[in-house]
Amino acid sequence: MAKRKFVKQALSQWMNGEGPDSEVVISSRVRIARNIRNMPFPLMADPSRSQSVMEQLLGVAESGRLNGLGKIEQIRLSELTELEKLVLVEKHLISPNLANESRNGALILSPNEDISVMINEEDHLRIQCLSSGFQIHEAWDSASKIDDIFEEQVDYAFDEKHGYLTSCPTNVGTGIRVSVMMHLPALVMTGQINRILSAVTQVGLAVRGLYGEGSEATGNLFQVSNQITLGQSEQEIIENLFQVARQMIEHEKSARSKLISESRLRVEDRVRRSFGILSHAMIIDSKEASQRLSDIRLGAHLGLLPEVNQIALNELLVSTQPGFLQMTFGEAMSPEDRDRSRAELIRSRLATNS
């Protein structure tokens, strides 16, 4: 079954680390929220209405209008196991909300997983486009084109005064969320991170962890996104985030240069200690693994661990998560079993990619 490749492979193409400024920005994402006029939002819809919405939106894909994306796959979430849905969440291909409310949920995926269209999530339609590195404008161009294709086929809920209508009031207006996933270890190590994040929130942006709202910023990974969609144009939202993210990238690069010039021995000691622990640990929890992998990622980018493959590090972001571990080893696991398997997987991956 086609869905199997999406839950068996940890690395999506947008995580290949080949995009601009990928030493700091893991990925750029644009998400567009839309609803169908005169249909209740998913949280209020009865099964027959949500089924009708799903069939209508899947029909756009079946019509061939999305063929320019390559051989797309349509996945009804009712066909997936709970573990398979968890893996798709860990790969950022669906949201936790869609995984939990998947009675009439569906997913349209591009072959390289950079385009993910969620159906009957919080809104009827969530178009998500992901790009490697710092490529906000490229992700927006892709998302906008897909949005146009759907808008030609379905009548969106739209108000002349307020813009696109959405289930959550914070998405009303343009309905777009733009975000970058950033690795900021040097700002954390030099004690600048709180000042930087405070300044970011004061200009209307939100800072969250690896899995968005409600998640902890472990492994020095921070997701920075817009909070407001009403009263600003798409271009204003994108440019505001772009300019702030550009400044954060420069601050992080400057902090890394300062670390290597003023504290090289201490930084290298920290990096190599983490490499040594991960290369030999027999058991490790997800929080410690995230922090140690962050150290190794920093060391690789500073030239302190040139033998470490960045793609392998990106893959480990997903493959060490609870769902993917259980999928890899083919069995349900207790937390202790996962900690043991996580250590085994990391040891093996570092040994073959260093």
Write a brief caption for the model:
With 354 residues, the chain is α+β, with helices and mostly antiparallel strands.
List its salient traits.
single chain, 354 residues, alpha+beta, Creatine Kinase, Chain A, domain 2, 2 domains, eight-stranded antiparallel β-sheet, 10 strands, 47% helix
Structural features, described:
Helix 3 (82-90) packs across helix 12 and helix 12 (322-329) packs across helix 13 (335-352). The protein is globular and about 65 Å long. 47% of the residues lie in helices and 15% in strands. The protein has helices at 3-8, 47-62, 82-90, 96-100, 136-153, 185-189, 193-202, 234-262, 264-280, 286-301, 310-319, 322-329, 335-352, and strands spanning 25-34, 73-76, 106-109, 115-119, 125-132, 158-159, 163-164, 176-183, 205-208, 221-226. The chain contains 13 helices and 10 strands. The mean pLDDT is 91. An 8-stranded antiparallel β-sheet has the order 2-3-4-5-1-8-10-9, with helices on one face. The protein has 2 domains: 8-253, 2-Layer Sandwich (Creatine Kinase, Chain A, domain 2), CATH 3.30.590.10; 263-352. A hairpin with a 3-residue loop joins strand 6 and strand 7 (163-164). The protein is an alpha+beta fold and 354 residues long.
